[in-house]
TrEMBL record:
Keywords, ordered alphabetically: ATP-binding, Kinase, Nucleotide-binding, Phosphoprotein, Serine/threonine-protein kinase, Transferase
A GO term from the CC aspect: nucleus
Family to which this protein belongs: Belongs to the protein kinase superfamily. CMGC Ser/Thr protein kinase family. CDC2/CDKX subfamily.
Native species: Adiantum capillus-veneris
SMART domains xref list: S_TKc
Assigned EC number: 2.7.11.22
GO biological process entries: regulation of macromolecule biosynthetic process; regulation of mitotic cell cycle; regulation of primary metabolic process
Official protein name in the record: cyclin-dependent kinase
GO terms of molecular function: ATP binding; cyclin-dependent protein serine/threonine kinase activity
UniProt entry tagged with the keyword Protein biosynthesis: no
């Protein structure tokens, strides 16, 4: 297992490339590490070796609740010479090396791994298959090999002063974590300018959410077990490498016609460690967000992903999201109506969370079983006792008691009949993206996420954050 303090990039073997659009000398004051600036946390200062004015981050600022640099800002940007751990940020008085934290200069774009990249012109773009908050995805063909790939164009229009943090983090994670159930980045290619940056990834015919909205019949129990096994395997690998995905949902799971499932979209992924650090709670799409996040917790770990997996398992079984709140309060209300209102007996830290000051309607009973009746009742989606036990342990209120991915893989549900189907025997479906867009949901969930992204962009925290 990787050290919790080891930067992800240490295993990626990436070099450094500087793309200069100006002849102005780049400041050489120690080692340059560029962070996304926070209001009120930087001062104006002339650097010795340049005539340009830069903003120098006040790394010595003390006794202030500074928001974690990983917090969701789609306008964030970063220039990296070398990834360092957060503990180094304050080490500006080191005798060995001076670290200067600066805002990226508008005319200088620096990013690892761009040197020697192929041109995007070496790929034939066949059709657009998806568009998300962080980029457009095309189905494309490598002209050299003939291979069909997915080409993700990163959105840089808001990044006049550097490379977007979300894209940088996604590339960093995907180049550092290799697993059959995690989407692989084959390479990074560039367009006519370094404003046009693309990730080349394996082509997958479907996203799970779009697929479930279009197929006529639901997945069988054996199918569901096959999908959940792959999902647990991928998430276990992430957690073993100290990575929290922080946005697991059915639309971020890709499925191909060979029965393989892969986790994608790592724009919110974060490296975690021990002891726990403070992060933003404005992560994870609302319907899949753990109750501790909804209640304002900012010190969390891999358990937030496991709650999301419980929501995903329920959605695969029913083809309907389990908790469809319209805002954070409504989301909590819907969770409490199904699982019962939590208390300090089942969740000792419950009363310590900021959100408990809100008076919620008391619902003392767990009604989850009503939505997933035993196998004997076939009018609704059936779920055996062992299957219900796994679902219940994923949707456990107390994150300390919530099942881990490793434990889930050993659960008895996967060992009882019907057994998980082999990937080679999984059903295949006609791919709509072969000739058009991949099916996607433009609905209330998308609008909710857009609103949250806008809130995060201007520094607005969650309901209780």
């Amino acid at each position: 297992m990787a050290s919790p303090l080891q930067p992800l990039s240490s295993s990626s073997g990436m070099g450094t490339f500087h793309c200069h659009h100006s002849s102005a000398p780049y400041p050489k004051v120690g080692r340059e590490v560029v962070l996304s600036p926070e209001p009120g946390e930087y001062i104006k200062e002339k650097l010795e070796t340049t005539n340009e004015t830069s903003y120098v981050f006040d790394a010595l600022k003390e006794n202030e609740d500074v928001r974690d640099e990983s917090d969701l800002n789609i306008g964030e940007h970063m220039v990296l010479d070398k990834d360092i751990d957060e503990e180094e940020y304050c080490d500006v008085d080191s005798e060995e090396e001076e670290i200067v934290l600066v805002q990226a200069a508008p005319l200088v774009r620096t990013i690892n791994m761009l040197q020697g990249c192929r041109s995007v012109d070496e790929f034939e773009r066949l059709n657009k298959i998806n568009e998300g908050a962080y980029g457009v995805v095309y189905r494309a063909r490598d002209k050299k090999t003939g291979e069909i790939v997915a080409l993700k164009k990163l959105k840089l229009e808001k990044e006049r002063e550097g490379f977007p943090m979300t894209s940088l983090r996604e590339i960093n994670v995907l180049l550092s974590v290799h697993h059959p159930c995690v989407m692989e980045v084959k390479e990074v290619v560039v367009g006519s300018s370094f404003n046009d940056i693309f990730m080349v990834m394996e082509y997958m015919e479907h996203d799970l959410k779009g697929l479930m909205e279009t197929i006529r019949y639901p997945f069988s129990q054996s199918d569901v077990k096959c999908l959940m096994l792959q999902l647990f395997q991928g998430v276990m690998h992430l957690h073993d490498n100290w990575v929290i995905h922080r946005d697991l949902k059915t639309s971020n799971l890709l499925y191909n016609n060979r029965g393989k499932l892969k986790i994608c979209d790592f724009g919110l992924a974060r490296q975690c460690g021990s002891p726990l650090k403070t992060y933003t709670n404005m992560v994870v799409t609302l319907w899949y967000r753990a109750p501790e996040l909804l209640l304002g917790c900012k010190q969390y770990s891999t358990a937030v992903d496991m709650w999301s997996l419980g929501c995903i398992m329920a959605e695969i079984l029913t083809r309907e999201p389990l908790f469809k709140g319209v805002n954070e309060l409504d989301q909590l209300d819907k969770i409490f109506k199904v699982l019962g209102t939590p208390n300090k007996t089942i969740w000792p830290d419950f009363l310590k969370l900021p959100g408990v000051r809100i008076k919620f309607t008391k619902q003392p009973f767990n009604k989850l079983r009503e939505k997933f009746p035993p196998t004997a009742f076939v009018a609704k989606t059936p779920l055996s006792e062992e299957g219900f036990d796994l679902l219940s342990r994923l949707l456990t209120y107390d994150p300390q008691k919530r099942i881990t991915a490793e434990e889930a893989l050993q659960h008895k549900w996967f060992k009882e009949f019907p057994f998980p189907k082999m990937k080679e025997l999984m059903p295949t479906y006609l791919s709509r993206s072969d000739g058009g867009r991949r099916s996607s949901s433009i609905g209330p969930l998308v609008e909710l996420r857009k609103r949250e992204l806008c809130q995060a962009e201007v520094g607005v925290s969650g309901l209780f954050g």
